[in-house]
Amino acid sequence: MDFNFRGLGFEQGDLVVVTGAASGIGRATALAAARSGLTVAGWDMTADALNSVVDEIKTSGGEAAAIVCDVTDQGALDEAWEQTATLGRPRYLVNNAGPPSSTDVPLVEGLRLSVGSMAAVTEGWLARFRGDASSVTFTSSIAGNFVASTVTAQWYPVAKAAIAAYVRDLAVRLRGQPRANAVAPSLVETPRMKAMLASATTKEALSRHPMGRIAQPEDIASCICFLLSPAASFVNGVLLPVDGASTWV
């Protein structure tokens, strides 16, 4: 899918930070943001895959830079913000990086790695660039917000619900400067989900999907770009389900 985002109101060359940009939803979002005219600072732990995304953007005529960063490490975060500042002052932030749902850690540690890291990224952005900040979009999930989840680690649905609550708090506390919203995808065909998608349980569920297919990363990226953009200038504090109506089946 090759969506055209030129009508969303982004200013050519404005800077966006996309965390977890090397694969899946983050990769699709980085590519979509570049097509919209934004300069992309892609953050990820995986250097080779991240460089590949940046090269693809540049080959297509866009502007991008790769910044290798573990968002759960405060020292690495500080260094990543310093590197990002050399590119400009980021008006936009896509808070997408987080551990896979299969990560086997206790509840409190899962919350630290997911919600805690997103909060740290956001607070670092606001501390440095609040005057220029326009909007931030988070990746949450239908799990913990619209459906119960017993096929993932316990921390996962709890963390995804906490992300939605954090977004609402930001929306009110920041008074729209910047705006804060989130997407809540259902199953998405990404490398992380390969094993789950191959299971008999998932295949049976997909056979009843109202859309007749599973979501692609680009489906989620298009919604992220809309919520991020000036076209959504009065959308604030929203958790947008991107599930093809599957939660109603």
Structural commentary:
The protein is an alpha/beta fold and 249 residues long. The protein contains 8 helices and 7 strands. Strands 3-2-1-4-5-6-7 form a 7-stranded parallel beta sheet, with helices on both faces. Strand 1, helix 1 and strand 2 form a beta-alpha-beta unit. The chain starts with 14 loop residues before the first strand and ends in a 7-residue tail after the last strand.
Provide a quick synopsis of the model:
The chain contains eight helices and seven strands.
| Helix-strand topology string | EHEHEHEHEHEHHHE
The rough form would be described as globular
Overall structural domain count = 1
Helix content: 40-55%
CATH superfamily: NAD(P)-binding Rossmann-like Domain
Spatial sequence of strands, sheet with the most strands: 3-2-1-4-5-6-7
Number of strands: 7
Mean pLDDT: 92
